[in-house]
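Backbone geometry:

***
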Amino acid sequence: MKQKTHRLVPVLLMQSVFMGGCAFGNINLDMPPQGDLPDNQGAAGQTLRLVMPFEDSRAIKARCGMKKNSYNMDTADVLCSQPPAQWVADRLQRGLEERGYTVETVRETAGGNGTVIEGDLIRLFVEPVIGFATVSIEADIQVRLEVRTGEGFRAERTFYVKGDTRSAAATRGTFDTAFESAADQISTNMVMAIDELVDRYPELGQHGEKQ
């Protein structure tokens, strides 16, 4: 039993060094403006109106994540490098434009015959999950979208994704990698859901009256 205990000590000390060395001090999360999406399916000429920015309903707005030491204690903040509700709306806009849509941005919901998309950022948080000899960085993003028209059409859907990366240490790079994975997933899921909706109801992509 003592031999097993002795074998564990270096591993635990190593993990403490890895985590302790980078656990203190806030970091700014890299928030890429654009990610990879499936190939364009030719939505040229179809117009959508996007309310900017999205609502921000996150329970914790002061930070976008946390850092921890080897004892799983909260030691520092992960800060968003830009307003997260605006960032996720920008990602959706760029994704739709890559698919070929014309996207008109508006500051608030307006009437008329156009198709309006509103969004609500419910969760965006990145944190380490401390394992025996490795650290997993998990990034959670949750967004609610609502699509509606002046004619009474309304559709709502909530998207939740998790990005993660595992390594021997929680570094700035592992935080960014996990978050980028979640960002690409949420962007793809939102864009493809809207694409499928417009494909099912082609009238949604028709250009309506501007207000």
